[in-house]
Structures are given as C-alpha cells and as structure tokens.
Amino acid sequence: MEGDRLEPAVTIKNIERELICPACKELFTHPLILPCQHSICHKCVKEILFFTLEDSFTDLGSESSNQSSPRIRIHSPSLDRIDRVNRSGWKRNSLTPRTTIFPCPGCRHDVDLGERGINGLFRNFTLETIVERYRQAARAATAIMCDACKPPPQESTKSCMDCSASYCNECFKIHHPWGTVKAQHEYVGPTTNFRPKILMCPEHEMERVNMYCEICRRPVCHLCKLGGSHANHRVTTMSTAYKTLKEKLSKDIEYLISKESQVKGQISELGLLMKETECNGERAKEEASNNFDKLFDVLEERRSAALRAIEVSKNLRLEKLQTQIEEYQGLLENNGLVGYAQEVLKETDQSCFVQTAKQLHVRIQKATESLRSFRPAAQTSFEDYVVDITKQEEVLGDLSFYSSGLDVPEINEEKSRMYNKALICWEHLVKEDSADTYILEYRKLNREEENATWQEIEACSKSKVISDLENNSSYAFRVRGYKGSICSPWSREVILHTPAAPVFSFLFDDKCGYNSERLMLNPRRTSVESRAGFPLLLGAERIQVGCYTTLDYIIGDTGITKGKHFWAFHVESYSYLVKVGVASNTKLQEWLHNPRDVTSPRYEQDSGHDSGSEDTCFDSSQPFTLITVGMNKFFIPKAPTAPKDSANRILPMPSCIGICLDCDRGKVGFYDADHMKCLYERQVDCSGTMYPAFALMGSAGIHLEEAITAKYLEYRDDM
C-alpha cells in the first residue's frame, strides 16, 4: 500500500475532475455511493435531503433555501420533484420511513434510497483513498506531524491503519513494541485518511460483506441473501466479482490507452471546433448588429421625415394664424384698416372720396363679416400626425432568430378542448421533438377591442392547461417552439369557445330510482349503459303496437337551486333512444314512484311524434325538459318557435352535447359542446330543485365529460 503513495503526483493531479463532488463542487469528503452508482459527499446528501424536504415546502423555488448553505450549489427542487418526494412515504420525525426519494445531482434523476435512507449507502473507500492521495500530492510541502510526540511534535514517517494515528520513528517503536499484538498492525506512509480494514454491511452492521448482488450492483452480506432485500436476487462471490470487474476495467483501460492517438486527434479537432465556434459566434454577432443598424437607419429616416412633415405643417399654421392676427389688429381704432378708413373720411373732394371709398367699403364689409363669424385660420390639433406603431411594435416584439430547421408546431383541434379549463394540445407535423420549450399565447376575441393583448405561458411539453378564462367567450390560441435562442414562426391561430356558464360537476346517482337490472354504471359513476337483455325479452309480451317499453331514468347526484350552470356529455353512436335534459324534484317523484310498463308516445311531451296533440297541449313553462337523441340524430322538440318542417327539426347528433340551465331566468339550452353552439332553448319552471336527468331505452350509452385538471395532464404526458 505504501507503493501507492510513490506514484507520480502529476498523475493524481490530472484526475482532479473525477474527484469533485457534483453537489458542493469541492473534493469529496466521506463519499457515499448512490444506487445510480454516482458518488456524493455524506454531508451533501444530508443537506440536499434537508433542503428538499423542509425548505421546499415553505419557500418553493426560493433561492434563499440553497444560499443558506455555502456547500450546496444545486438548483432548487422543482414542484413535480417535491411531489414525488412527498409520495415516497418519507415522514418527518419518522424513524422507519418506507422509502426515501433522493434527487441525484450527478445524473439529475430521482433515486430510491430504500427504507434505511442514508444509512443504507456504502462509503466509497476507494474514491476516498484516491482523494486523500490527491490532497497529499497537492500539499506535498506540508508535513503530517506525529500524533504521539510531546510538543513540539516531530514529522511523522508512518501511519497505523489500526490505531488511526500517525507516528514518527521513535514513537512508532514505543507504541508498537516487538513481540506484542500491536506489532502486527498494518502501517502505511503518512496519511490522514484512515478507513476500516473490513467493509461492513450497512443493513446488518455486525456482518461483513462477502457477496456481490448482480441485480443491484452492490456488495451484500449473507443475511441480505438469506432473508433480506436481496433474497431472490442473483449474487456471486466477492472474489469472483472482484476478478470479473477488475478484468473488465483493465480491458477497458487498455482499450482507451491503445486509442490515445485517436483521443488526441479528437481533442485537436474539438480545439479547432472551439475556434471555429468563436469565429462564427463573432460573425453572427456582427451580422445581427448590422441588421439592427439597418433597422435603426430606417427608423431614423422615418423619424426625420415625420418630424419634418410636422415642422412644415406647424410653420404653415403659425403663418396663417399670424396673418389672421395682423388682420384683426387692423380692425382696432387708429390702426390698420380702421385708421386708414378714418383718414379717408376726412377727404372733402367728392369724386376723390368715391373713387377710394368704394374699394375700402368692400374691405370693411369683409372684415365685419369675419368678425361676426370668427374662425381660426388653422387647426391647433395634430391628430393627423400621430404615428401608428401598433403593428410594427407587434412585429418587432416577435423579432427573433428564425431557423428553417425548426418545425412549426400546429395546434391539434381534435385533442384540444374547452370545459372547466382549456386544454390546448399541439404537435409537430414534420419533425418530432424539434423544440425544447414552447410559448403558448392566447387572447380574448372582443368586438369592442379588436387588438387585445396576447397573454403568454411557457410549456415544456406539447400540451398546456389554462385556467381563469371567461365564460361564454371566444379565445384565439397560437404556439411557437424554442430550441435555445432559436424560435419557430407562430402556428396558425385556432379559435375555441368557452362554455356558456360555469361548469357544473356531478356524478350519476346510483340510489335514487337507479335500475341495476337494466342500467350499468362504471365504478366512477361517470358512464351509464342500458342493457337490452333478458328482462326486456320477458316483458315483450306486454308490448303493444304503437307503444314502447318504459324508459329507464337516471339523474345526477347533485341538485341546482339557483345560478347558471353548464355540463356536457357524450352519447354513444350506437344508442337507439336517449333523452337528456333537466327535471325538478317533484317531477322526479312522479317518474320514480308511478312507473308504467308501457308508455304511449302521446304521453311524452317531447317524443317528436306528429300526433297533433302536442301543438295544443304545449306548455312553455314545464318543470322538466327532455330532448330526444338517438340513431346519430338530434331531434328538436315540436314547439311554436321550432321549425314546422320535421326535416328541419332533425339534426346530426353532436359528438359532445352540452346543457346550460339558467335558474334565475328560467331557461334551459341544449348545445353542440364542440363548437359551443346553441341548438335549442326554451323556458323551464325552476321553482324547485333541478337535477340533470337522463333516460335510456334499448342499447344506449352516456359518458359525462371529464373535467380538465393539471394533474390529469401530467399523467397523460407521462404515458
């Protein structure tokens, strides 16, 4: 082992980069081996866990949490990382946590430290020894003093690994006399790095490691293999692992050494690339500066022209106003025109007076008329000289580096949707994953404000959830991709419409009137299907001509008493007959407590049959409203406001149907929820508690629209 100390110092100094902790950026101190095989200082592990699990919850994203420790220089943990650490099961003040998630600063991945956390990690003694040799090489001029000498201490010549102390020659002989047990101690050259002779198992502290787990790639003891966490893992003896790994490492090192000339050539090539990059970067800066200078020249030219035009107009107006002032000053007594006229009146010769007074009288009349209808000779306002830079400002705001290699993202209208929030999805049609980040912009389309300001939000994936959009409004969306400082052009603008009212959340009620024999709910109670099975065949003998069997009703589990609400759902394309709408609690009691096996079409107010009685019996203020959907058709009920032609009352069934209930105005509307277009609206009596109501007959299925959540989006991106 003493021979290791005699290796050339220059060799040790050349590997300094490998001896730096990725967290504190200093030489390793008691390094631990993480499951990802990266090493990190023991103190850094403790500090990172502390700041991740403590400070992150009190000051998320705060830089102060890292600045409080001069050692740690890693970024603050992200929200999703904190969420993963939260889910890991680590609990404050818990002695036996289930598992601990640790963000490795080396590979930037989260690693599982297992149940024992830090206590389950091995110290990297090999790395620790190399670091100590490096420190010795760095401080070769600084001697290690004897720990046993009386002051003043002498320079040490040996270090005992068993005593963990350094000695000079005299003290070593005194503390390690011949013929004693201490004489058998292991000693090396002077060092401050004392490591145990035997590597012990961190999980079973009294057992030494004697096997190597090939699955976990770490040393284990025989108890770990017998009944511990490595019971079912493939293991090998430590000697076999040592021999195998040493052979592989030696071969790899020999291969790299044999390729030394190739490595030097590639280093030279990289050096040339650095110089080329430097030159190209300076050239790009010069070109960018020249382009901006051209813009400045154009702006300066336009600025000078605009200022000249304003100056000419100003001087012309001032000249006109000055002339008008002089004319009005002439109307004053003993001045100008009036003074001249007064002198003319003194003329006594009639012929001479008439000759001069005629023209003077015309001038006096004009001055009198101008005095009666005073108007300035020029306008003081310069409204016509206001420079409109709105479009130019927007264009300059988008000024960036364009690259033909960066694909333009396009918003996918089929995947994007509006409900309680907006979910905007986009994709690259040519190159997949050609951008690192995206900027999504949106603005409300308002007739009163044509040029509304774009609001932007950054996204790291190809979808984004936007909250706080106004109801019953239209929004334009566009997206562009960024790769470093290079950005793509904006995508085509897509216009989406928000629901007419706040989204009302509910589930199907599995208790009130729910018929489990003919209806089937999913576990989440968001979908219902009617099963036209054996019970329907048993009741077939009661079916008469012109009649159909009873509809199976199901309602929402939450009622509405006031306000305006919107909800949406999907009707399966194979559905034969489905009725959807709203019903009051009084009508529901009639439906659910007085069932009929057979129902005539005439009994159904919204059946859509031309019986003739519906026109005379129609009441515009019923406590319920149900419209008929089926066979991929949407049937508008017969009403005074509806088209008389039956063909015009049959529309294609929207893929998503929306209902808007306004209890305050007593109205209910049925929408094409994909385009937020109202297909039918009528009055409804909202004096009681109103419930979303559905009815199915035959094979049919209804699925409630799923609310958009940021959590749902994250899971979707992970998949």
UniProtKB/TrEMBL annotation:
InterPro entries: B30.2/SPRY, B30.2/SPRY_sf, Bbox_C, ConA-like_dom_sf, COS_domain, E3_ligase_FN3/SPRY, FN3_dom, FN3_sf
Domain B box-type intervals: 196-238
Primary site of residence: cytoplasm
GO molecular function, one term: zinc ion binding
Gene Ontology CC annotations of this record: acrosomal vesicle; microtubule
Domain B30.2/SPRY: 486-713
Sorted UniProt keywords: Coiled coil, Cytoplasm, Cytoskeleton, Metal-binding, Microtubule, Repeat, Transferase, Ubl conjugation pathway, Zinc, Zinc-finger
Annotated localization: Cytoplasm, Cytoskeleton
Pfam families registered for this protein in UniProt: ANCHR-like_BBOX, COS, zf-B_box, zf-RING_UBOX
Domain of life: Eukaryota
The Fibronectin type-III domain, residue ranges: 408-501
Domain called COS: residue spans: 345-402
Record-level GO BP terms: acrosome reaction; spindle organization
Gene3D superfamilies for the chain: 1.20.5.170, 2.60.120.920, 4.10.830.40, Classic Zinc Finger, Immunoglobulins, Zinc/RING finger domain, C3HC4 (zinc finger)
Presence of keyword Transcription: no
Record domain RING-type: where: 21-73
Recorded family membership: Belongs to the TRIM/RBCC family.
Name the UniProt record assigns to this protein: F-box/LRR-repeat protein 7
